[in-house]
């Protein structure tokens, strides 16, 4: 790669679902787009997620319960949430920030920010999917979380007024109502919650690949190249230094998932992103039928019907991104799923691991680098990257147009971990 681009050029670093959504939206608005990824599009975290377009995930990741259990979790080999001992040093700053978020005012601000994005997430996704010919992959039949104990159901139900208060409709369902919706579930499910506006994507990898195909067909350049750094110049243009060379663009948007942290580190005092690895087990002939995503509440993971079978997905493993995947964490999902789907067939099951890019407050980072409005970032979507991909693209496009984004993105500023109010300057200016 070695070129200088004319005005109106945008480079998007990262061809996961966030980068491809941003690229598609920007191309739609007339920008000349180049997408750079060290791999083919949709090979990282976005390839294997649970496909759940969930309206449930509006809370920060750490709860007082979880933080109190951290020492135990560090020693655990199994369980839905573990911390690898070699990763503890990375978890310390993360935990410090996560603790701050549990203070009532911060908790409310984070919840409000996630809820505001979530409320418009599905229509935004549906619009982008229609634009790229991918709408058949999306459906909106709601999502369930089900429990085997009254205590578990009671605990989860306490948040019902919060979801409903933010305009995300949720109803508590009895065991018989759940059985009517999903007859395949075992009859000892005591009840659950129904998120009626949630949806699903029946093939997340293909969704992104359709975006990529549409981009290429409409003239975007999709390059396989590893970006080493991004450097603002005095003229306002941004230079991308990569394994393939050097190129200058009018604007650059860093959408590199977990690795966005390293590219943004030179511009922020603290970027406490961690690698929260998750696993899936794809069952090609499950012999049971679900019609919508079902989250099993105890322990917490999801089962989603997909084009290629039934996908069991979830678990959180805070671990070095480069450590060998522990695929037994994927295979254990079949054992756990049998508690809820007694007849499920695991023959031919395929394992997969992906790296969730996770900030301590559960919010993504979306904004522009202080003093360099042409250098933007959108990464760190943790458990919600597919759901929030299109709404993120609308925020980035609005920032570039110099208009107010569809949601308040001030809480998404990457400067929020650095305690330097000056870093909020650009954002306030562009949102004004
Ligand atoms: C088990 C599991 C289940 C999940 N379920 C759901 C779900 O149901 N719903 C939901 O909304 N979300 C879910 N998620 C989360 C979601 O998958 C992620 O939030 C999302 O994929 C993040 O997308 P991304 O584009 O930011 O990152 P990625 O998909 O990781 O893409 C980043 C891209 O950047 C590229 N890159 C990085 N650094 C460089 C560089 N220096 N140069 C060039 N290229 C670079 C990488 O190669 C990669 O292609 C789940 C995640 C997991 C692990």
Describe it.
The chain is of the alpha/beta class. Helix content is 31%, strand content 27%. The strands form four sheets. Strands 5, 7, 8, 9, 16, 17, 18, 19 and 20 form a nine-stranded mixed beta sheet that branches. The chain has a six-stranded mixed beta sheet with strand order 11-3-2-15-22-21. It has a four-stranded mixed beta sheet with strand order 1-14-13-12, with no helix packed on it. A hairpin with a 2-residue loop joins strand 13 and strand 14. It is globular and about 65 Å long. The relative contact order is 0.20. The site of flavin-adenine dinucleotide has 42 residues, from helix 1, strand 3, strand 16, strand 19 and strand 20.
Please describe the structure with a list of short key phrases separated by commas or semicolons.
13 helices; 432 residues; nine-stranded mixed sheet; disordered N terminus; alpha/beta; binds flavin-adenine dinucleotide; 31% helix; single chain; globular
């Amino acid at each position: 790669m070695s070129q200088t681009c004319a005005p109106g050029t945008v480079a998007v670093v990262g061809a996961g679902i966030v980068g491809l959504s941003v690229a598609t939206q920007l191309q739609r608005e007339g920008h000349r787009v180049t997408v750079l990824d060290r791999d083919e599009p949709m090979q990282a975290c976005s390839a294997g997620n649970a496909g759940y377009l969930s309206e449930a995930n509006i809370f920060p990741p750490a709860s007082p319960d979880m933080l109190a259990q951290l020492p135990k979790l560090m020693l655990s080999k199994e369980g839905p949430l573990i911390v690898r001992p070699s990763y503890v040093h990375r978890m310390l700053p993360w935990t410090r920030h996560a603790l701050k978020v549990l203070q009532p005012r911060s908790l409310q601000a984070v919840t409000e920010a996630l809820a505001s994005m979530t409320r418009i997430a599905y229509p935004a996704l549906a619009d982008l999917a229609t634009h790229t010919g991918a709408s058949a992959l999306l459906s909106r039949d709601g999502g369930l979380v089900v429990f085997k104990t009254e205590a578990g159901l009671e605990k989860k139900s306490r948040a019902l007024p919060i979801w409903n208060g933010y305009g995300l409709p949720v109803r508590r369902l009895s065991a018989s109502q759940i059985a009517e919706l999903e007859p395949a579930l075992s009859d000892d499910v005591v009840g659950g919650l129904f998120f009626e506006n949630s949806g699903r994507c029946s093939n997340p990898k293909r969704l992104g690949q359709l975006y990529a195909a549409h981009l290429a067909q409409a003239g975007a350049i999709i390059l396989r190249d590893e970006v080493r750094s991004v450097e603002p110049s005095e003229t306002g243009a941004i230079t991308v230094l990569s394994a393939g060379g050097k190129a200058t663009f009018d604007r650059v948007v860093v959408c590199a998932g977990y690795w966005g942290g390293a590219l943004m580190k030179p511009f922020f005092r603290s970027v406490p992103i961690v690698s929260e690895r998750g696993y899936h087990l794809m069952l090609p002939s499950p012999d049971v039928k679900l019609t919508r995503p079902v989250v099993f509440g105890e322990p917490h993971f999801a089962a989603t019907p997909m084009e290629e079978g039934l996908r069991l997905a979830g678990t959180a493993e805070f671990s070095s991104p480069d450590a060998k995947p522990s695929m037994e964490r994927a295979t254990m999902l079949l054992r756990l799923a049998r508690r809820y789907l007694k007849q499920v067939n695991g023959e031919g099951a395929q394992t997969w691991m992906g790296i969730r890019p996770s900030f301590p407050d559960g919010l993504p980072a979306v904004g522009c680098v202080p003093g360099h409005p042409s250098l933007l970032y959108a990464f760190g979507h943790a458990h919600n990257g597919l759901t929030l991909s299109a709404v993120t693209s609308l925020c980035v496009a609005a920032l570039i147009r110099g208009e107010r984004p569809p949601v308040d993105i001030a809480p998404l500023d990457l400067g929020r971990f650095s305690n330097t109010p000056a870093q909020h300057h650009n954002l306030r200016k562009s949102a004004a």
